[in-house]
TrEMBL record:
PANTHER family: BETA-LACTAMASE-RELATED DOMAIN-CONTAINING PROTEIN (PTHR46825:SF15), D-ALANYL-D-ALANINE-CARBOXYPEPTIDASE/ENDOPEPTIDASE AMPH (PTHR46825)
Enzyme nomenclature, EC number: 3.5.2.6
Alphabetized GO MF terms: beta-lactamase activity
Keyword entries, A-Z: Hydrolase
Superkingdom, natural source: Bacteria
Name of the protein this chain belongs to: Beta-lactamase
Pfam families cross-referenced by the UniProt entry: Beta-lactamase (PF00144)
Statement: the UniProt record of this protein carries the keyword Transmembrane: no
All residue ranges annotated as the Beta-lactamase-related domain in the record: 24-341
Organism encoding this protein: Aliiglaciecola lipolytica E3
Amino acid sequence: MHVFQPVLAEEDAWLYDFASKTQAQAMKYNLPGYVLVFVRKGEPAKIITYGVTENFGDKIDRNTVFRLASVSKTFAGVLMAKKVAEDQLSWQTPLLEIVPEYGFNRLDPNPITLGHLLSQSSGYIPNAYDNLIEANYSLKRVLRQLAKLEPLCSPGKCYTYQNALFGVLEDYYTNQKSSYADELRKGIFQPLKMPHASTGKKGLQSSSKWAKPHIAITRSKWRESKVQDDYYRYGPAAGVNASIEDMAIWVRAMLGEYPEVISGQIIDTVTSEKIKTTREMRRRDWRRFLKDAHYGLGWRIYDFNGHKLNYHGGWVKGYRADVSFAPDEEVGYAMLMNAESNLINSFTAKFWQAYFEEAEEVKQK
């Protein structure tokens, strides 16, 4: 049930092999559906689709919309880098100035800044109050709780991954008589002409075709689930929806094909190493390839067997997503799935293994 668009050329035999093996695994574990795209700068995107939107539903195609989950953070990093480039904010702006009502480390001489937020180096315990997000506490209540936390380390000194803290940006734009969704639409979606990209539950469900979420009963049995509101209320962390057509455009933008919207300087800024992420080195399916790992500004930066790879993954109930690009090779990849399957970790790692091995063979000819 996979479709290659356009037809793969002879030199893409490695991609066909990867796609075939991926489909075989998907069939073995009864995955509802997925889409993936391979982009080489300046060339047509190669999109592969598999499965259906729901039981007895439509076939998934290039226009089917999925939740991006934490891949949304890549958009937040770029949007904030654009705001900094426009002198609307600074990476050194303290959260206390951005949302003063919460009193974030008011008496600390080393305040948490916008840069710390986007680089996941606030110092708070990792995933602080994700449980409150999932319990549907209000955004303001969660931010008040966060502001009272004692940090594990000084801001900028250790990697501490967050979701709830990204609510600062949601609240900030509400206070500015705007919204984060509007800023993202005006700053990225519209100028890049992303045809199906949106934010929020309403944005997903008003799409002409969207993939329903599926949760695991066993490793190879899936049950359709309801779309959850919880993380949607933290749009910068996990609120974006997109089709694989949109993701092809996003990857192209990160490869520098739309400099009038996202400059090379902004790309360099968000993919510059800010904090070491030692834990990533132990990722199953990835650890044999990774030589180093850092977080930038909304993007992870990996040393994948000597190649720079910028990456982010996402997971919310019923969905998984990955996006990545190798700037030196000028290629990128994304995968969206309407099932919360860990197979996506293996798929993405194996994609890059296959790509770099093929690239090395070509260089040696």
